[in-house]
Amino acid sequence: MALSFAALRVAARPGSRGEWAVLGIAGAAGVALLLGPVTGLLGALDRAWIVLVSVAFAAAAAARPAGARFWPLALRACLYTAAGVAVLGPLTVGRSVWQEAQWEATRDAGVAVRRVIELAPGLYPAFELTVRLLAGGWPVWLVLETLVALGLAWRGHAGVGPHAARRAGLNLFPSH
Predict the structure, then answer these.
(1) Which residues, 6+ apart, have CB-to-CB distance to 15 below 8 Å?
(2) pLDDT 10s digits, 112-148
(3) Which end of the chain has fewer CB atoms surrounding its CB within 10 Å, N or C?
(4) Taking a C-beta distance cutoff of 8 angstroms, is the pair 1, 149 a contact?
(5) Which of 9, 44, 57, 38 has its CA nearest to residue 158?
(6) Would you say residue 19 lies in a domain?
(7) What pTM value is reported for the model?
(8) Per the domain annotation, does 27 fall within a domain?
(9) Ramachandran sector of residue 14 (left: φ over 0; alpha: ψ -120 to 50; beta: rest)
């Protein structure tokens, strides 16, 4: 969310020091999260997805006609990002990237579900089905998480800046 918010702020062309400060804080937070340790191929794919979707969303928002709505922009950004990851994944990792990602998703889902079953042993009959659902649905979960993050970035972006401050009767970003 921080990187998407920062990308939206860049696309809005900040003018005052306050707007640049908001951009700097959001950008630093987004980069700090990306620079953390990566665990496995899914972590690397997740990082690539975050960067690509942030850029695609901000570019679409900057090029949009006035009054464009969130959903078409966000879904288009996800579509472009999926195409980018589909091309870059095999180029950078190899042709087996999707089999490796699926194996890792299955392993991670199995570990997570096993922890839940340790707390609630009566759920064991649902173990295999739950692991399959979580592992097979990781792209869906990724898109859902992305849409939530883009929505938060969109709302935050709409609530920051000189126009939003003036609507609220505040002068948070003086031009001097």
Answers:
(1) 162, 173, 175
(2) 999 999 999 999 999 999 999 999 999 999 999 999 9
(3) C
(4) yes
(5) 9
(6) yes
(7) 0.76
(8) yes
(9) beta
Q: Which residue reads 């900040």 in tokens?
A: 14
150 φ, ψ (degrees, to nearest 5): -65, -35
Q: Are 25 and 56 in contact (CB under 8 A)?
A: no
* 37 in a structural domain: yes
In terms of Cα–Cα distance, which of 13, 25, 101, 116 is closest to 61? 13
Residue whose C-alpha is closest to residue 82's, from 58, 61, 98, 62: 98
Which of 77-83's residues contact partners 24+ apart within 8 Å by CB, and which partners? 77/53, 77/150, 78/53, 78/143, 78/146, 78/147, 80/52, 80/56, 81/49, 81/52, 81/53, 81/56, 81/146, 82/139
Please provide the average confidence, as pLDDT, over all residues in the chain: 83
Which range is most confident: 33-42, 137-146, 149-158? 137-146
Question: At 87, is the pLDDT very low, low, confident or very high (cuts 50, 70, 90)?
Answer: very high
Question: What six digits make up the tokens of 158?
Answer: 């709409």
- Per the CB < 8 A criterion, the answer to whether 111 and 94 are in contact is no
Which of 10, 41, 48 lies closest to 160 in space, CA to CA?
10
Note down the domain range covering 159: 2-167
